[in-house]
Amino acid sequence: MSQLLGRGESFGRLGFGVPYAKACYPFWIWWSQLLLTGFEPGDVFLNGPDCGDVPIPMAHNALVRRFLESEADTLCILEDDHSGDRETIRRLRSNPANLDFDIVCANYVNRRPPIRIIGGDLGEANAYGEVTWHSDQLAVPRTGTQAVDCAALGLVLIRRWVLQAMVGGDDPDEYFWFEWRGRNSQDIQFYRMARLVGARVGVDRECGIAHWGQYAFTVEQFYKLQEAARKEQEVKGNV
Predict the structure, then answer these.
(1) Domains of the chain, first to last
(2) CA-based, 20 to 30 A from 222: which of 33, 71, 137, 203?
(3) What is the pLDDT of residue 80?
């Protein structure tokens, strides 16, 4: 079994896969490029029949189980309504700033207006396990890797120890790393559990990808809106 690589160490071999749900054409172009030149020797492809054409988050959990059965060091999930370039994953895994995190996510926005960029802080959980999350969108930087409580799953690297720690003494075949709970999406619930085991989460603000709905929504669109909002605040402050 793979050694447990921790903060400051490389992400090692990636176990990568796609939880197919709503694949868009630009994703397939990107995916083809990644399969040709986007990964490194020794990386492991995880997809099987239990990872596609099944309800979310069932496919995400299937990828984790396949990953834990492999010899890979870090799980790489790519959700199929995003796109980037063939160097995206190389940049994400090789950025020295990202090595200080246990989970690191590429930078992107939601796929419908109003545009908001991913990454924020979690509140406390209620009795049912739901949590709220909040983000100061004006404070999101353009560069660096920003520490957050909660990111997303569009393109994310997750160190093996985090997934194993979540299971604890339970049977991995019966454990669910991803689940919807009330108003919380599987993303929020996953990061809530990551926080409980002490994982450090970051968003690489220099590793941007597009998020597809009817159209592509990009980080550059967000930063233009962010700059306009800052200028509006300055005008109001000077009145």
Answers:
(1) 14-238 (3.90.550.40)
(2) 33
(3) 93
